[in-house]
Amino acid sequence: MIAYVIRRLLHTVLVVFAISLLIFFSIRLTGDPVTVMFSAGEPTKEAIEEVRRNLGLDQPLYVQYLIFLKGLVTFDFGESFRSHMPVMDLIMERAGATLALAIGGTIVSILIAFPVGIISAVKRGSIVDFFGRIFSLIGISFPNFWLGIMLILIFAVNLKWLPSSGFEGPQHLILPSITLGMILSGILARLVRSSMLEVMNQQYVSTAKSKGISDWAVIIKHAFRNALLPTITFLGLQFGSLLGGTVIVETIFSWPGIGRLIIDAINQRDYPVIQGGVIFLAVIMVVVNLIVDLSYSLIDPRIKTGGSGRA
Amino acid sequence: MVQKVLEIDKLKVGINDDGNKIAIVNGISFSLQKGETLGIVGESGCGKSMTSLSLMGLLPPGVEWLDGDIKTESLHFKDFKKKDWRKIRGKRIAMIFQEPMSSLNPVYTIGKQIMEMILSHENISKKQARERALEMLKLVGIPRPEQVLDEYPYQLSGGMRQRVMIAIALSCNPEILIADEPTTALDVTIQAQILELMKKLQEQLNMSIVLITHDLGVVAEMCDRVIVMYAGEIVEEAQVVELFDRPRHPYTKGLLSSLPDVNEEKEYLSSIPGVVPAPGKMPAGCRFAARCSFAHERCKNTPPLFEVNGSKVKCWLYENGDSEAVL
Questions:
Q1: Chain B residues 197-256 with CB within 8 Å of chain A
Q2: Which stretches of chain A are DSSP H helices?
Q3: What is the DSSP string of A209-273?
Q4: Which residues of chain B lie closer than 8 angstroms to A222, CB-CB?
Q5: Domains of chain A
Q6: Alpha carbon of B103: minimum distance to chain A alpha carbons (Å)
């Protein structure tokens, strides 16, 4: 088990190295950052050279990369071209907000999708199942910006119950979490429903029923626990992408998250921030996947991570 | 004096498709005596599994109890609510299934799965339940029972898993054990061990067994009495020796003659021509007539179950007992 975790973490180092190569060179294909900085007026050649020197952009590319790599080893992503703040500080400042939103969205989606999926499967073909499936379809096909704006209109503008933007306290988390969670829960409910249907046909569910235990004990203890495996995989992947891909929701709710940090940095060709942000997300993604893999063996004893033990 | 533990009275089970009822089990009646092993034999799709599932109230979705009743001395199963079924299941009637490889839940330990049964019917502590579970594992002959208690099903072989299933089923001392093809998925030596075990435990605990099988060898080995089912109906009911010595219904004869005989050298095994008609497409009259080499005019009407020398047979040939049945 421990050997497995160590192996996976070494794997992570390789992944980060590959991504550092990819991101470093690919953003440099987008053009010269210095020209964007002088958007107003006509800069002199000397002024441009001066800025380049200050930012270290006058060095040959491979030297720049080695400097970047050296920083990476010490968790130092350099300074922002714009604000001149350390990139690590910028990321850490925003990581909390992003993490809070990802967790909030995931919790909302679980709270909605698990009951809907389970009941849909148990009452297959009934009117409840019909509405459950309609709900999933709506969840999948609704654009999240529309849902976000609607929630703001109703709960922030008309009812004035909840704040519409920023992240200053737990109440700020509610609307963006619901927006994200609703969208996610559509797919999740479908997945839960289909895994449940598959598991409910298994012989051990009949065995459980034949013991004379309650219907809900059969459904939750025996069926759902087994249906959880594919669901956890999906949730893990989803959580990873929530950390990086919530730009739309972050924009609607003026959420100070990493997604927006990266988008802004891309617009300004702020290389260190882009590099730092992307690598940070990659590491998070790998770690989440590792946690998902490790959680399998908690749910299903047949899965022994590391390949040791009896087959 | 034989004591009836269960009486099945004109039980009809089937699909109710908007009032259009299609019977899978068509009004069968039989009883189960205390301590006996009753075999139910028939081809796939003859309704034997549906019969056994209805004894537990575990009919699959879409299949309904259409008519008839199942009775014990004091209970009428047809009036049962969900809660009443739960009291019966496991406590009075327990069941083991065909596929030991998949009938245990992969994510719980063996001990937990036995304890769950005990705890749901008996008011005892977890510790006591665990002790009982251990006793049960010893009873069914599991080696290293203390360890197995904390092992998962994937760590056991098929035969061991079926022993665990038997341990679960018997953990609350049921009066009746329903065994739906309990040895079909096991290889022959293990089969014999499991049958042996069931027989031993039956004597020890004085319970009745309903053994569903298509294997006449298993029937000969295990059963006291046999019911032969065909297309949702009982076509013959007899003591086991009688059935093998003197099969009466043409279908039973067909089944027996399709068994290979070690003393006889045959190039081909004989078989019964044709297939079982599908539910909803049953012919009028005798349901076996189309495949029967003795079919005649009278078979256009449904024969009743004739009583013949202590056996029952659903065939016009026995209208006047054995005497006129010239075959």
A1: none
A2: 2-27, 33-37, 45-55, 61-73, 87-122, 127-141, 144-151, 171-200, 203-210, 215-216, 225-244, 247-252, 258-267, 271-299
A3: HHTT--HHIIIIIIIIHHHHHHHHHHHHHHHHHHHHS-HHHHHHTT---HHHHHHHHHHTT-HHH
A4: 105
A5: 2-86 (no CATH), 96-256 (1.10.3720.10)
A6: 4
User: Worst-scoring range by mean pLDDT, A98-112, B172-186, B286-300, B312-326?
Assistant: B312-326
Taking the Cβ of residue A211 and every Cβ of chain B, the question of whether any pair is shorter than 8 Å is answered with yes
Alpha helices in chain B (DSSP H): 48-56, 82-88, 110-121, 126-139, 145-148, 158-170, 188-205, 216-222, 240-245, 250-257
How far apart are alpha carbons B28 and B25 in whole angstroms? 7
pLDDT digits (tens, 9 = 90+) for B297-315: 888 888 888 888 888 999 8
Is the distance from CB of B170 to CB of B201 less than 8 angstroms? yes
Q: Does B103 touch chain A (CB under 8 A)?
A: yes
Angle between helices B110-121 and B126-139 (to 10 degrees): 120
State pLDDT tens for residues B79-119: 888 888 888 898 899 999 888 888 999 999 999 999 999 99
CB contact under 8 A, A301 and B117: no
For residues A258 and A244, the answer to whether their CB atoms sit within 8 Å is yes
Angstrom distance (rounded) from CA A47 to CA A209: 80
